[in-house]
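residues and backbone:
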Amino acid sequence: MNNNENDIRTYLALVRRWWWVLVLGALVGSLAALFASRSMTPIYTASAKIFVQPGRSYQPNAGDIQSTRALVEAYSALIKTRPVLEKVIERLHLPYTPETLAGLTSIVPSGSLIIISASVPDPDLAATIADATSKVFIDDFQQQQLLELARLQSSLQEYGIADNSLIISAQATTLNTLRIVEQATPPFSPTSPDTRTNVLLGMFVGLALAGGLVFLLERLDDTVKSPDDMRELTGLATLGSVFRTPPDRGGIPVTLTDEHQRSSLSESFKFLSASLDFATAGTKDFKTVMMTSSSPSEGKTTTAANLALALARQGKSVILVDTDLRKPQIHRIFGRSNGPGFTNVVLGTSTLEEVLAPTEVPNLRLVLSGPMPPDPTQVLRLPRVKEVLRDLAKECDIVIMDSPPVMVVADSMILASMVDGIVFVVDAHRTSRNAIAQGVEMLRQTPTTLLGAVMNKVQTRGRGRYYYYYYYYTYYYSYSGDSANGNRRRRAQSLAGKIISQLTFGALNVGSRRQRRRGYGYGRSRESDGAASTNGANGSGEALAAEPGQEAEQKEQGS
């Protein structure tokens, strides 16, 4: 039962995600069928009916009824013979051959009736052909009957029977008779094309093709879409999820400022920091955490920066170190120049106190990468690197290190052996399962504990129940913050909370999209609206998320 429910939820999630493809497929199929129907020549069908009466003077029995049906079928076959069709063409002066006329007419036996139908683009001509075919066949049939009687009379005279009227009359009663019981009339509407049926059929065909395309795309999509996929693939627990946001004009990643304290972005990193605490619970002297990913542009730098900010605002002393000596980004996020930093301390040209840079956030200090060396791998192999990390750990509660992607260069593998824990950042819906599996496998070759994964840039639409809670907080926090309209917003927040609790997941998706159209600067002043969202550290976009476990706390804060 649970498997069936999971399958149904999976299909519903696919429909919510790809509904626009399904609708587009149905629409294209309908329009194509409509266009094809309109471009076809309309065909009109007219029908005439002939009644077949066997030559019997007594009440027919069951055997006679069967004989009548066989007779009707035999006559139906005779109507479409070449002599009959040639006479119809000659009588009406039709520009058809007998074969063409045979294709335009249909003969259907029905009980004692023969239904003759003609289908042509002209309704009057259709009725004329059906009537003419009926009359030509009946005339030929009657001539054959008269010839039979004439031959009988001639035979009787040869045998010297002069008075043969009674014999001829008796013979006539045994002959079959045909008569037209319903003449053909010009139809008012065409029988083909059936536009309505064609449009419905085209809609279903387009929907089926779109469904096949969606299935193919899903089969070809080998990315990790949920924490369950991550655990199934790598065995790693997901420490947190961060939703995707569109990039800012300046390309500067979103960081947790004071204006974000009541935003879903802040809640997502509170959740991540709490998960990190649980992952390291019971670990003695846990001080250094390395953030890495399998490939570039997965948002690990922005994740490291926001995690450091979240931990600092919780009262912990944090040092954020940029150990990406090939493409440093920490200085760009915090709006600084990449002056003396990590490489200077390792090479002995600067002291640790000289490169430790305070920030506007209490308890958070930075160690930038410093000048990029010609061979970063050789620098990281120096014994001095481990000493510098040990000295940094003495200066704070936790050291957060931003390192290069593990599958691109060997730098992260070298640093992994010098830290206490590793957090693996994954760009959901972009990084392939093979790349994730290889990256995790490489990190597991090191002696350092792999703490878990962070699902970054998660797409919320069509992702099922797991992300419902994050949607709720995105909607909830869109009304937070102080402004001149604070009372109105609080009333709207209260009303929204009542409405949201009754809405379905699809309605919540609509609400979330409306909030995103209003802007991504939750709780911000108008002056700061322009710097709302951005790409991640390596050109990647950070996301907004929320923490499911904080609902009661946030309601209390909002009241």
